[in-house]
Amino acid sequence: KPEPGEHIQDPAAGTAGFLIAAHEYIKSQTDDLYELSDKDKTFQTTQAYVGIELVPGTRRLALMNCLLHGMEGDAEGVVHLGNALGQTGAGLGKADVILANPPFGTSKGGDASITRDDLTYKTSNKQLAFLQHIYRNLKPGGRAAVVLPDNVLFEAGVGTDVRRDLMNKCNLHTILRLPTGIFYAQGVKTNVLFFTKGSAADKYQEENCTENVWVYDLRTNMPSFGKRTPFGDQHLRPFENVYGDSDRKEGEYSFHSDAIELPEHSDENEGIDPRLAHSRWRSFSRQWIAEHKGDSLDISWLKDSDSVDAANLPEPSVLAGEAMGELRAALGELEALATALEGDA
């Protein structure tokens, strides 16, 4: 919930959708900014929002999009041309709110090489580099919501170091496991990480800031969303309801989660109430994450109906034989089709 007077950033702005959404939310809370003084209104339209976009064509669309929504920005506009993982990003001021969906894969039209020398953990993984930039660039008490693919949650080595540093410097209070088809390419699994610089009790705290991580599973046994199956407010509303509770409690059973099977072996379900194991909304302590997950944040406890249990798969030789049989059958059908086409000719 961004507020008037806050500095709001998106280091991977694209066409500025997140920044515009923040602006529209603030307008909805201030009667289209009419409740603000002239000075504050000028701040909202010229200084409140800064984005960075690598690709010139995309940035032009972003600038036009912002102007259509009354967002002027500074001399360069709301969205600056540059690389957030280079000197453009290093030169950004601290932010109260950062909203971002860092690019997945390679960008067309720009070089997204990581040239920053101020990031603690050197990595070629751009999402891990963006994540470091974001939590480093928050003011004390600053808030962030970042869309990230699954590999950021479980990648070992530098990935573990970055997650550990994030949970140390920030209060990583919530992870939303999203269905497929919302961000990135079809089939890529994504999450939204919500965190605040400092701890819940002290925004200036610099160590051991995460006590508990709440996870909402909006992925298991959910459809793959896209043009034919659009993702709407009704799908997000159960999460919004529990996310906003000042006194959070585990136990949320939307989309028939109480009927979802549980995996045979799951550290997440050890020693808990059987009904709670079916909840989409669970809390895990920082200590539990360290001891049971090795600081991986790939936390799941429900069994997807489409998942494959590796323990029950046939021997590799059997699988290879089945695949060869299917390939031979397909090849035979192609040869028959080719013969028929030659006969027609």
Description:
The protein has 345 residues and is of the alpha/beta class. It has two domains: 8-308, Vaccinia Virus protein VP39 (Rossmann fold, 3-Layer(aba) Sandwich), CATH 3.40.50.150; 314-345. It has helices at 17-29, 38-46, 56-68, 87-90, 126-136, 150-154, 158-169, 233-243, 286-293, 316-344, and strands spanning 8-10, 49-53, 79-81, 95-100, 138-149, 170-177, 190-197, 212-217, 281-285. It has a nine-stranded mixed sheet, with helices on both faces. Helix 3 (56-68) links the parallel strand 2 (49-53) and strand 3. The longest helix has 29 residues, at 316-344. It is globular, with a radius of gyration of 24 Å. The chain starts with 7 loop residues before the first strand and ends with a helix. Residues 308-312 have low confidence and may be disordered. It is an enzyme of class 2 (transferase). One of its GO terms (molecular function) is N-methyltransferase activity.
